[in-house]
Write a structure and sequence with these properties.
The complex is a heterodimer.
Chain A: H1 5-26, H2 30-34, E1 37-46, E2 59-63, H3 65-76, E3 88-102, E4 105-117, E5 122-136, E6 139-149
Parallel strand pairs in A: 1-6
Antiparallel strand pairs in A: 1-2, 3-4, 4-5, 5-6
Chain B: H1 10-13, E1 14-15, E2 18-20, H2 27-38, E3 43-47, E4 56-62, E5 65-71, E6 77-81, E7 96-98, E8 101-103, E9 110-112, E10 117-119, E11 141-145, E12 148-152, H3 160-164, H4 168-175, E13 183-184, E14 190-194, H5 198-205, H6 211-214, H7 216-222, H8 226-229, E15 237-242, E16 245-249, H9 251-257, H10 272-282, H11 284-293, E17 297-300, E18 304-307, E19 310-318, E20 321-328, E21 330-331, H12 335-348, H13 356-369, E22 377-379, E23 388-389, E24 395-398, H14 403-417
Antiparallel strand pairs in B: 1-2, 2-22, 3-12, 4-5, 4-7, 5-6, 8-9, 9-10, 11-12, 13-21, 14-20, 15-16, 15-24, 16-17, 17-18, 18-19, 19-20, 23-24
Helix pairs in contact in B: 2-14, 10-11
The chains are: A alpha+beta, B alpha+beta.
């Protein structure tokens, strides 16, 4: 897409948003992370490739806004055993691209590379992420996040952290 | 212990209510299990609805071996092994598809989807060769019950129906919840790996003692009634169905609640289309009974777990690595309940499941735990003193008792000790 100075400023804001979202997830700041979502947010981690219609086939995660809230509430109990102790996490979000606008949302894609340390051992998760970001009250919010893991066609170990 | 030249001391390894920690960690035992259990007994492979059309195929497994389940052009199901009869290359790399034949990429040998060798390039090099002896390997026996396809590598032995024994009725009970008396497996699988021995998974599937603890975090926030089904006050029973199969029979609680679809946390009013179809299929009275009883929670040894709304297929990869393949059960001709079955399944199971990630954590910690050598045994004696026989002669215990685990080990030992 053609770029002008305004787009450069916007891209900078988008990148800052994605880095912020990544840091909150890495640091298990569950409530702050949840507050980044719009009221109609959809959090999707397909299985078996790009994922067919998530309304028809199994996904690793396909959360509407209320299930995102439930997932966060469960983590906040401190008794979610797969996150007690919490995964050690650091992630790199890169290759951020603005793909365009869809209604009021910005369509953005990025690559992510997550290092996770657990009781089982250490592992790396790699994904292409797609976001739809929306300005709500002057701030960017996340209306959609799709995390397409490179290896989602294979058997995966538990991943109960926020990716 | 070396499986090749030593006979395990079973009296020391498996006792009526305790088993040695090494039962989960000994690689030689795992090799013996492949011979005595996985490559002998009936193992669940797939469901007929996964290959609905002629020439459909889907990649499945029996233990570490890949199995291609095909439906040939005449509609017959075949369980083929993914190994070219020429020099052993894999003939199929896709998870599923539609193909009348499989061509090995190495030298171009081609097999029809019923396993027969169709031909090879440059045939003059094989003058006088009997192609009928050069088909794909296949699982020795295949049998289907209620659409569930099982395979056995033993040429002789019990029939599938004999193997299912007391568990057979639970599959009837399952499909009865579909207005067309058929379930379908059409939503694709999640594949969840755990660094744990497969038997910890089998034991956990009908362990009614753990839910209140392992799943406390989700029961608390989801206001789920599931936890109460497994309380010390629950009227549900644990049942040893024989043959290593077992169930948590929750019907006593559901009947006490007396609410159609209460077993699924919903109501007839919220699923009117499904309810109408059930009433039409069974008549209102019978439909009401079925919709109160719900679907079973049954572990069919060694690898099929029907967990009310989903199936898990347990695949051991090694002594300490296991994959659970899981998907939502779908009732044929019931789109409104099917959507809910998928949504509830996706939320609860798989690598990020609100339930199963925590079970997985327990499997893995237990696997590490049993690396410690003392105490010698795991204690599986819960409810031993209150075991009783039900009207059909099955051993039952309270909801949280370890009747299913003891039954599994009794059968396991008989399989492992058999010649």
């Amino acid at each position: 897409m053609a770029f002008d100075a305004n787009d450069s400023l916007l891209l900078c804001e988008i990148e800052q948003f994605l880095y912020h979202e990544a840091r909150l997830a890495d640091d298990h700041q569950y409530e702050a992370w949840e507050s980044l979502w719009t009221e109609d947010g959809v959090y999707w981690i397909p299985a078996n490739g790009e994922g067919g219609d998530p309304e028809q086939v199994m996904s690793i995660v396909y959360d509407n806004r209320s299930r995102i809230a439930l997932r966060i509430k469960q983590l906040l109990t401190g008794k979610r055993l797969s996150q007690t102790p919490r995964s050690g996490l650091r992630r790199i979000v890169s290759n951020v691209e603005m793909l365009g606008r869809e209604n009021q949302d910005l369509r953005v894609t990025a690559n992510a590379f997550v290092f996770e340390s657990t009781l089982r051992g250490d592992l790396v998760w790699a994904s292409r992420n797609e976001y739809r970001l929306r300005r709500v009250g002057g701030e960017l919010r996340m209306a959609y996040k799709k995390v397409t893991l490179v290896n989602n066609d294979k058997a995966l170990y538990s991943m109960s952290f926020l990716i | 212990m070396n499986a090749a030249d030593a006979i395990p001391n079973w009296d020391s390894l498996i006792r009526p209510h305790e088993v040695r920690g090494s039962m989960y960690t000994d690689p030689a035992l795992f090799e013996l299990e492949l011979q005595k259990i996985w490559y002998r007994t009936w193992v669940y492979v797939g469901h007929v609805s996964e290959v609905p059309q002629p020439n459909d195929f889907v990649m499945k497994s029996i233990g570490p071996q890949a199995v291609i389940m095909t439906r040939d052009k005449d509609g017959e199901i075949h369980l083929l092994l993914n190994r070219c009869s020429h020099r052993g290359n894999q003939v199929c790399l896709k998870d599923s598809g539609n193909a009348g034949s499989f061509t090995c990429p190495y030298h171009g040998w081609t097999f029809t989807n019923n396993g027969k060798l169709r031909g090879y390039p440059f045939p003059t090099g094989y003058e006088g060769v009997d192609n009928s002896q050069l088909g794909l390997g296949r699982v020795t026996r295949m049998s289907i019950y209620q659409g569930f396809v099982f395979g056995s590598f033993a040429a002789e032995g019990p029939t599938l129906e004999e193997h299912l024994g007391g568990a057979r009725e639970t599959l009837d009970r399952l499909v009865r919840n579909s207005p067309e008396n058929e379930i379908e497996i059409t939503a694709g699988f999640l594949k969840h790996q755990v660094r744990s021995n497969w038997k910890f998974l089998v034991e956990n599937e009908t362990d009614g003692y753990h839910p209140q603890f392992v799943h406390a975090s989700i029961f608390a926030v989801a206001k789920s009634g599931i936890g109460d089904l497994y309380s010390s006050k629950s009227t549900a029973v644990s049942r040893d169905l024989g043959g290593g199969h077992s169930e948590n029979d929750l019907r006593p609680e559901f009947r006490r609640l007396d609410k159609p679809l209460g077993w699924f946390g919903t109501s007839a009013e919220r699923l009117p289309d499904y309810t109408a179809k059930m009433n039409a299929a069974h008549g209102e009275g019978r439909a009401r009974e079925i919709m109160i009883d719900g679907t079973p929670h049954v572990m069919i040894f060694p690898n099929l777990f029907v967990a009310e709304i989903q199936i898990f297929v347990i695949q051991p990869l090694s002594v300490s690595e296991t994959v659970q393949h899981v998907t939502a059960i779908q009732f044929k001709g019931a789109p409104d309940i099917n959507r809910r079955l998928r949504q509830q399944t996706m939320g609860s199971v798989g690598p990020a499941g609100l339930l199963l990630a925590d079970d997985g954590e327990m499997y893995e910690r237990t696997q590490r735990g049993v690396q410690a050598l003392k105490p010698d045994y795991l204690y599986l004696g819960r409810g031993k003193h209150r075991e009783r026989e039900d009207e059909q002669g099955f051993v039952v215990g309270d909801a949280t008792d370890e009747v299913p685990t003891r039954g599994m080990w009794r059968h396991y030992r008989s399989q492992m000790e058999a010649d």
